[in-house]
Amino acid sequence: MKITAIKPYPVWIGTRNQLIVKIETDEGIFGWGESGLSGREKAVVGAIEHYREFLVGRNAFDIGAIWQETYRSQYFEGGRVLQAAISAIDIALHDIKGKALGVPVYDLLGGKQRDRIPTFASTSLPPGDAMIEQARELMAQGWNAIRFFPAGQDSRGIFEPRESIGETARWLVKAREALGESVVLGIDYHHRLSVAETASFCQKMPSGTLDFLEEPIRDETPEAYESLRTLTDVPFAIGEEFSSKWQFLPYIERGIHQFNRIDVCNVGGLTEAMKVAGWSEAHYVDMMPHNPLGPICTAATVHFAAAVANFSWLETRASPAEGYLGFYDTSVFTTQPTLDGAAYPVGNAPGLGVEVDEEFIKKQSFKFWEAPHLKRGDGSVTNW
Questions:
Q1: DSSP per position, 193-253
Q2: How confident is the model at residue 308 (pLDDT cuts 50, 70, 90)?
Q3: What is the distance, to the nearest Å, from the Cα of residue 376 to the centroid of all Cα atoms in its chain?
Q4: Helix (H, G, I), strand (E, B) or coil at 259
Q5: Strand duo 116-122 + 145-148: pairing
Q6: Which PANTHER family match (predicted)?
Q7: Which end of the chain has the smaller Cβ count within 10 Å, N or C?
Q8: Are residues 116 and 206 in the same domain?
Q9: Residues 52 and 193 in one domain
Q10: Measured between alpha carbons, how far is 70 from 134 in angstroms, rounded to an integer?
Q11: What is the CATH number for 240?
Q12: Predicted confidence band at 324 (pLDDT cuts at 50, 70, 90)?
């Protein structure tokens, strides 16, 4: 089965761009993939177009060999742009192979180990009474793992970490008291803090307030996280920005974190994600996949989650608290994963089990979008 075309569609769907990739074959079977480098989709399209030049005509079943060739076909291998392109191609090739063999993608990954994929939901309100009430509503609908977001970003795009951590810690303590000990509670600081700020934040709360702290600092320097590890007992959830097994290496091998926030649309697709999962299993690190994109990403991650042993929760952005975001437009994705309570059922359709209205997306356009460019009160640039 030969690849005949690779078609990237960077299009605005709902409230954001999605970079959807279709791979066609000479037997009429096609597959869908998705890239995760949000806000820089055109850069990834350029990489996909370069790869297309030598992938057309190749055997679509040779997924592992294609991964190696796309990774090693340039002197400057790796990096987030190239890996996002490889991810989309790899996912689409798994979709093709599953359809051709008449099996769901998880059967290509070793078979399913669970029938339902538990998720964690996120509140959409800043710290306060309304945030706690929203968390109660999520618990009533079946969620036993909930993520919060911090206080501190104002309407001018100013974020002061020291002003954020005290207010956020105060409300997290209240949330734990109000919601009880049985629910898993975490927070995503989106790498906006320093080591000292993160330590202060954690030390403002009784031990056990948080079950995970996601991305408190940037990940480029593992030694910084090692230093932070000595200053707090809160489990770390890290890795949504990692674009290869090599970036995960120091975190897994040095026992720095407890949850891998792996993103199948950024790390190198399902081929690379399965390698990271096996490596993590050997070090008792659980997979907690990042899933902020569209239904193709969700479907691929559901198959991944079904096939690995060391799994905790899958991120969902389709809970009642965040459903307004518009990522899951059924006019575009006519078949897609759908929550059953707080979990995604594992289906048995061949391939990924996603169907896309290609004629609709051909009519959509790309819109330039920028993530917030946050600043400190003194005018200096800080992380979003």
A1: --HHHHHHHHHTS-TTS-SEEE--S-SS-HHHHHHHHTT--SPEEE-TT--SHHHHHHHHH
A2: very high
A3: 27
A4: strand
A5: parallel
A6: D-GALACTONATE DEHYDRATASE, D-GALACTONATE DEHYDRATASE-RELATED
A7: C
A8: yes
A9: no
A10: 45
A11: 3.20.20.120
A12: very low
